[in-house]
Every structure is written in structure tokens, then in C-alpha cells.
Specification:
Layout (H helix, E strand, L loop, with lengths): L2 H15 L2 H23 L8 H24 L3 H15 L8 H15 L7 H12 L5 H13 L1
Helix pairs in contact: 1-2, 2-3, 2-4, 3-4, 5-6, 5-7, 6-7
């Protein structure tokens, strides 16, 4: 079952269960996906976005909520921080398991070997390979410096 179908099914189930917070989060996810669909159709892609783009949307949404939760905690608004964290839990149900540190390093090493990268100028090639294989499974903001270190040695 593709991600869109899973999200739609869970949205319907949340309506039946009268789970207001879950329903709200799933509606936000659905709206973000439809937004990207509209953009894709405007660019000539009649099918809308695929699973890889949906994963990217979900990853971005989770990251935004994490940043918001931190900001709320710093501002002393623990109630709002909790709401953001609850939304993160719902969003993460649709994301693949995150790679741990060792798996991330192994993936970076494999991508460097696959592309034949040997200097910092090849960083884009390595990132492209990683994004193609591991979208939603790793934080590319943290992976960038690892690739840089790997290629500068």
C-alpha cells in the first residue's frame, strides 16, 4: 500500500474513532501533499507527487514540529510543545525507520565508493545517491558534514 493510501485510510479511521488530535495532524499532512500535487501538475506532472516526495514532505513536517516544540519549551509553553510532539508521533508513523549512527556512516561510505568521489567537489554526487536511497531515513543536515569530513581526508 502506498503512502497516500495509508494516510487516507488512517484519516478515515481517525474520523471514525473521533480522535481529534490525530485527525487534525492527518488533515495537515494530506493538505501538504495536495499542495505539492498542485505544484507538480502546474509543472506538467499529471500524476502529482510520488512516494519519495511524500516522504520528503513528511520529513520536513516532522522537522518543523521539532523546531517548534523546542521554541515553545524555551518560551515556557509546555502545553504547545506537547501538542507539537504529539503531531510528530503521528507523522513518524508514516516515515521509515531512521538509520542509526553506524548505519549512516556505512551508507555514506558506500555512496562515496559507488560514486568514486575523492574530493569536496563530488559532495553533490554523494548527496544525490544518498537522497535517492535513504529519503526519510536520515537527516541530511547532519550527513552533509560527515560527507565533507570523509571527502576532505
Amino acid at each position: 500500500m502506498d503512502l497516500r493510501t495509508r494516510i487516507a485510510t488512517d484519516l478515515k479511521q481517525a474520523m471514525k474513532d473521533k480522535a481529534a488530535e490525530r485527525l487534525s495532524t492527518l488533515r495537515l499532512v494530506n493538505a501538504a501533499i495536495k499542495d505539492k500535487d498542485i505544484d507538480a501538475r502546474a509543472e506538467g506532472n499529471e500524476d502529482g507527487v510520488g512516494d519519495a516526495e511524500v516522504l520528503a514532505i513528511l520529513g520536513k513536517m516532522a522537522k518543523q514540529r521539532l523546531e517548534s516544540a523546542r521554541a515553545y519549551e524555551e518560551g515556557g509553553r509546555l502545553d504547545l510543545a506537547e501538542r507539537e510532539r504529539a503531531e510528530i508521533l503521528v507523522i513518524e508513523e508514516f516515515l521509515p525507520r531512521q538509520l542509526d549512527e553506524a548505519e549512516t556512516i556505512a551508507a555514506v561510505n558506500a555512496a562515496v565508493a559507488e560514486t568514486g568521489a575523492n574530493s569536496i567537489r563530488d559532495m553533490g554526487k554523494v548527496m544525490g545517491v544518498l537522497k535517492a536511497k535513504y529519503t526519510g531515513q536520515m537527516d541530511f543536515g547532519r550527513v552533509g558534514p560527515q560527507i565533507k569530513d570523509r571527502l576532505s581526508n
